[in-house]
Structure formats: C-alpha cells, structure tokens
Amino acid sequence: PHCRRPAELPPRVILEHGFGEAAVYEAVGCIRCGHTGYRGLVGLYEVMEMSDEIRSLVLERAGLDEIRAMALGQGMRTIRDDGIAKVRKGLTSLTEVARVTSSL
After folding, report:
1. What is the spatial distance between Cα 104 and Cα 91, in angstroms, rounded to a whole number?
2. What is the chain's alpha carbon radius of gyration, rounded to the nearest angstrom?
3. Alpha carbon of 36 to those of 32, 66, 83, 89, 94: distances in Å?
4. Residues contacting residue 58 through CB under 8 Å, at least 6 positions apart
5. What distances in angstroms separate CA 32 from CA 53, 94, 98, one per listed residue?
6. How many CB atoms neighbour CB 17 within 10 A?
7. What is the phi/psi pair of residue 67, to 5°?
8. What tens-digit pLDDT sequence spans the chain (104 residues)?
C-alpha cells in the first residue's frame, strides 16, 4: 500500500471485470519493497470440491471440459476470479493477475 497508485484502465477492462467504482491500483515501487511494487506474497487459489456429481464424472473418465463445466456450475471460483477479487481488495494488480493467469 505504500507504493501503489491508482491504475487507469481501458473502459473494456472496467466493463468486462465489473470494476465500476472500485479503486484499482498498479505497482510503483519504493524502498520498502525493494523497488518491485510488491512486498510479501498473496496466493491465488482455485479449489474444486469433489461433489458426488464430479466424482461420477471422474470415475466415468469424463473430459476436463465436462468436469470443469460441472465444477463451475456448482460455484467453483477460478484462479482468475480469485485474482480479480484480490485486485478489487487492493491486494494485487491486474498486471500481476494477467502475468500469473496468462489472460486478461
């Protein structure tokens, strides 16, 4: 929080990710963080709970896309979604989430 500044986002990104009035920051760097813009680590997580339906798909050797669709339908949050939530909280930047998830 000591070396961040508000990020200017393209309207497409604001709409696509629903940032609206949320403050989004970018890393600047200072002596406290070794001029990296980041201090410490914040994990991005994607956890799939093994429901009975997903277990059945796995046992049937269903494809990854089918299992993923079932998990998402049951409320699984993707690693990218977790990253976006942490951007909204001011814990990381869109640039860092894009780097880690190879998207955005």
Report:
1. 17
2. 17
3. 9, 40, 19, 19, 15
4. 50, 67
5. 48, 21, 24
6. 19
7. -65, -45
8. 778 888 888 878 877 777 777 778 888 888 888 887 777 778 999 999 999 999 999 999 999 999 999 999 999 999 999 999 998 888 888 888 888 888 54
Q: Which residue type is seen at 24? A: V
42 and 88 Cβ atoms separated by less than 8 Å: no
CB 93 within 8 A of CB 87: yes
**Tokens of residue 1, six digits:** 């929080």
> How far is 24 from 13, CA to CA, in rounded Å?
11
Report field, pTM of the whole predicted structure over 0.90: no
Positive or negative torsion for Cα 68, 72, 73, 74: positive
102: left (phi over 0), alpha (psi -120 to 50) or beta: left
